[in-house]
Amino acid sequence: MAKQASDSEKISSSHLEDKVNGLDVDTTPIVYDRFGRPLVPQPSDDANDPLNWSTLRKVAIIIVVAARTFLGTFNMIIAGPTFFAVAAELETNLELTTYLVGGPILSYGVASLFWVAAGNRFGVRLCFLASSLAAAALSIWAAKTPTFGQLVAARTLASIAFAAPETLGPQVIGDVFFLKDRAKCMAFVVAMQASGFALGPLVGSFIVRDLGWRWTEWIMVILTFGVAVMIILLLPETQYTSDPSFVVSKRRASQNFAFTRVSGRGQAKVHRYLVQSRHVHYKCSLALALSLLSCIPSAMFAIPCYLL
């Protein structure tokens, strides 16, 4: 035992000497903020690393994420004041109109697994834009629907699309902001999310009174298309994987509008699903299966409502 301890001390001593001699020392300079505190995580030398982007761009990104998050909760609750009008016009029981809120809440909650997998595979920017366009299209269906069943189905499926920033939003914050700023950004996004719950019934009441219940859906269409334009202009791809082969000192302006899986030319976080080198990757297939299964409860709810 004494001999083993002595050997361990020799190894530790040798390793310490190597460090002192500079053989195992990281010579990368530490980056500090304006108060002299080291930044966590440390940014790379790549201009495509979102941590290196300007404060103005980061503020624009968090505003877009917060606005998109607001629409998700706002859409769920805005239908609350429409119950009586919908029951009268579409000739359904008042008790069933609660599905107009219950269905979207269900689908909003269970769709998160799908958007996590899709964002990591195809990129956050593409998922934000595609989900916004899908949500707007489904809201048009809800605004023009002739039956109560179609209305519930359209709102339930639209809420799947509206749910994208629920999980991708915190991921964007983690990609773009340093640790010292993440809490403030999350607080802002959560405040906007809560504002959707608070303002939905209030705004919906005035819309139903002055314009009719169908305009609650048309308002969602207008707002969602507006946020989609903001995504195109202000939200570049924020996922980043470091690759020394693709480090650049200046970022091209066209990259802010490109639809790529990661910022720059690195590899996607999830770059394979099932097969690589003729071997099946069960973890990837399981993650894909779980993400798809997460949408089944919403579909099981929406399809019978459509057939009513």
Question: Can you characterise this structure?
Answer:
- By secondary structure, the chain is mainly α.
- The protein has 12 helices and 2 strands; from the N terminus they run ααααααααααββαα.
- It has a two-stranded antiparallel ribbon with strand order 1-2.
- A hairpin with a 2-residue loop joins strand 1 (275-276) and strand 2.
- Helix 4 runs parallel beside helix 7 (148-162) and helix 6 packs antiparallel against helix 10.
- The termini are far apart.
- Please, how many domains? 1
Low-confidence stretches: 1-20, 272-281
Largest sheet properties: 2 strands, antiparallel
* Strand order of the biggest β-sheet: 1-2
Gyration radius from CA atoms, angstroms: 25 Å
Write down how many β-strands occur, each being a DSSP E stretch of 2 or more residues: 2
Instruction: Report mean pLDDT, rounded to a whole number.
Output: 83
User: In DSSP terms, counting alpha (H) and pi (I) runs of 4 or more, how many helices?
Assistant: 12
* CATH architecture annotation: Up-down Bundle
Task: Summarize the helix and strand pattern as letters.
Answer: HHHHHHHHHHEEHH
Mind telling me the CATH superfamily name?
MFS general substrate transporter like domains
The amount of beta strand, in percent, is: under 5%
Under the CATH scheme, which class?
A: Mainly Alpha
The level of helicity is 55-70%
User: Separation of termini?
Assistant: 78 Å
From the spread of the alpha carbons, the general shape counts as elongated
Q: What structural class is derived from the secondary structure elements?
A: mainly alpha
CATH topology, by name, is: Growth Hormone, Chain: A
